[in-house]
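Marked as duplicate of an earlier ticket. Keeping the data here for the record.
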Amino acid sequence: MQKQNDETMISGNLHQDETRFRAIFDRCDDIVFRSFLIFGNNEGLLVFMDGMADEKRIDTELLQPLMSCSQPEEEWIDDALSYLNYKVLPSEKIEIQTHEDQAAEAVLDGDVLILVDGAPGALSIGMTSLKTRSVEEPATEPVIRGPRDGFTESLQINVTLIRRRLRTPKLKSESLQVGALSRTKIVVMYVEGIAQQKIIDEVMARIQKIRLDMVLESGYIEELIMDNRFSIFPQLLTTERPDRVTASLAEGRVAIIVDNTPFSLIAPATFFEMLQSAEDYNQHYIVASATRWLRLWLSFSALVFPSLYIAITTMHQEMLPESLLLSIASSREAVPFPAIVEAFLMELAFEGLREAGIRLPRPVGQAVSIVGALVIGQAAVQAGLVSASLVIVVSFTGIASFIFPSYSLGLSIRYLRFPLMIIAGTLGLYGILIALLAVLVHLSKLRTFGEPYFTPASPINLRGLKDALLRVPWWKRAKTRQTPTE
């Protein structure tokens, strides 16, 4: 092993080191090798990646000082790299690299590598300059009242947005790297003294166990570190909002920030937390509490409303008032399909239009999804393929499915209602009741990093349940607040 390490060390023979680095970056046309003279007649070499390193800073902060610097004093004559580090280069981020693999990785990260003939090792200068998207409001989590900045694809910017809101040295950030080929950087953030150490250790351990070649988005991490990989419910909270991440950190949770994606992860997450919006705490507490109840009712409606329609119209007609029953029966008189078939057709058509509206260009997608739903619904009713009452049910269900602040949870509810519709068509209301009990049992058993997923409902926590169903006013919350470590 020692022999192998010696073979990969940067020797200080510039021609030999350049040959080996050119072999490492063979057929990499974006890697620039820039030769220059230093100390009057000594040879030097810059290695950097075109497009990732700031070329203006290379000219002003590296090449000009290096090419104009004189021979080092006698005490520095045997350590040219330290001389450049301490007395010549004004850059704030400088590291001494001794092995070729470390130096090559620094170049791929956007650093500039400096090699000097006769000086073993190399200097890596942090001069990364990536073209990133500007900070703007998240498209998936808009608010009426609240901050308008959102995460971008830059890890450094995302961490800074959180640091701006939590200006305390207790906010810790630990860096990791995953992906054998992508070498994606991940930052795990938490507030020391508030977050539980066992959760921090568990998050770090699960991330370190990841063995993938490529990690291109936080969804890779989410799928690999969740407790129950066969559950349809999201077990980590996904958000683009730095204010939401900051609030979760202050509550003792752990944030996972992944490079090259604006979506950050929060662990542990609970079911009721995913039904809460960041705007709830910016509005009046009475209005926010009423909105939470509205959100809970619409969430339940998005799950069971089509199933209730199928079950009642198919097996439990006696539950309807006579006038309503006659109205539904008359609208379904010319429909050739049973209720479950027409419900499936309309729900699939609505989901297809919604997916098409997302994938199409934004100005076209909104028009296609809205106009398409109106045209198809009206045409289907006139053709006698579906009843007008079912169009109303599907439309209301579609509107209710947009109420979820968490897109991942909304997606789970949207697709969970399809098996519920099948059960309703075969077993009626009894089947719906059994299916909902099975879902509640699953949610009660589910864990996220060892914490109950359905808390504070199961196990019941009256103080937490009060905040889940109501938005406790700040003047009351300041007296009753309890951190997770208590």
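See parent ticket for discussion. The two ends are 49 Å apart (CA to CA).
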